Amino acid sequence: MWLSKFAVSFVPAQLTSSYWLPEPNSTFAPEVDGLFMFIFWLSVFFFVLIVGLGTYFALKYRRVGTTEVVVPSSSHNTALEATWSLIPTALIFVIFGWGFVGFVDMRTPPENAYEVQVNAKKWAWNFTYPGGLQDSDLHLPVDQPTILTMTSDDVIHSLFIPAFRAKMDVVPGRYNKLWFHPTKTGENVLFCTEYCGREHSGMNRKVFVYEEGGVEKKLAEIQETMDKMDPAELGKITFTKSGCMQCHSIDGSKKVGPSFLGLFGTTHDITTGEKITVDENYIRESILEPMAKIAAGYNPQMPSYKGQLREKQIEGLIAYIKSLKNSSSK
Ligand code: CUA
């Protein structure tokens, strides 16, 4: 880390400015931006030099009405050729070294970091905090390193927090670790940056950074609000925050899964040829074991929410679906 900080200190402040980059809210940001701006201004310098000299020579030595053929007076120039080979080579080594130091830093999580388990699925994020509380947004302490231990239930997703300059694939069947050190309290955005299907673009959440003790306070608050809330209201919040809305509409339109509008109490053929009625038990089973009974005409692709929704939230979802009655009789 010290080496890249040392390298960044050579770059004038105005050149490392994050004018057209996301807000720099982690310790990685100045390192990444410094290298980016170094490469950017280096490229600008050589672009102007080469295009400028090319234009100048093209104009200066243009053909002006003479038929005289100029015979070149020299075949090569060793000193000149060595110079234009060695300078770019040295610059490439500088860029490589600078980038490599940053890479090693990003791949070496510090000890005593705040640990959050991350689970990704089509198309929702779930974060489990020390103590077992869960939320679909990321809550973090400021001025302390955080490690995310990430895995996926289905396809490859990728977690990206632009303001932290932190990004890593979230792969099914393995745990990937991503770490960063937030330096500013406030709100940031988290994206999925690996195309993972139809609702990929909706797979984004908020990252909240708090003063010391703020995370625990916020999580306790979420828990308390959830306990007090009217079931249908909690169901509505769970519907938007836990990813249900990516695949289910509430206005009757068909998305990946059935719309929740007027769904409760309806009867459907399932793929085994039997019939089911959408009641409390069927909704509960569909949330925990979605592959058990698939309604005809739908692809079996809903992920299980076992262990990721609390009993209260499941009851809430049932109450919410029950409350979405069709006003026009069909
Ligand atoms: Cu998950 Cu894209």
Automatic annotation (TrEMBL):
Residues annotated as domain Cytochrome c: 230-325
Bilayer-spanning residue ranges: 34-59, 79-101
Topology of the protein relative to the lipid bilayer: Multi-pass membrane protein
GO molecular function: copper ion binding; cytochrome-c oxidase activity; heme binding; oxidoreductase activity
Record-listed E.C. numbers: 7.1.1.9
Domain Cytochrome oxidase subunit II copper A binding: residue ranges: 111-221
Protein name per UniProt: cytochrome-c oxidase
Location of the protein in the cell: Membrane
Cited NCBIfam families: CoxB
Source organism (scientific name): Planctopirus limnophila (strain ATCC 43296 / DSM 3776 / IFAM 1008 / Mu 290) (Planctomyces limnophilus)
Gene Ontology CC: one annotated term: membrane
Keyword annotations: Copper, Electron transport, Heme, Iron, Membrane, Metal-binding, Respiratory chain, Translocase, Transmembrane, Transmembrane helix, Transport
InterPro entries linked to this entry: CcO_II, CcO_II-like_C, Copper_CuA, Cupredoxin, Cyt_c-like_dom, Cyt_c-like_dom_sf, Cyt_c_oxidase_su2, Cyt_c_oxidase_su2_TM_sf
Top EC class, one word: translocase
Taxonomic classification: Bacteria, Pseudomonadati, Planctomycetota, Planctomycetia, Planctomycetales
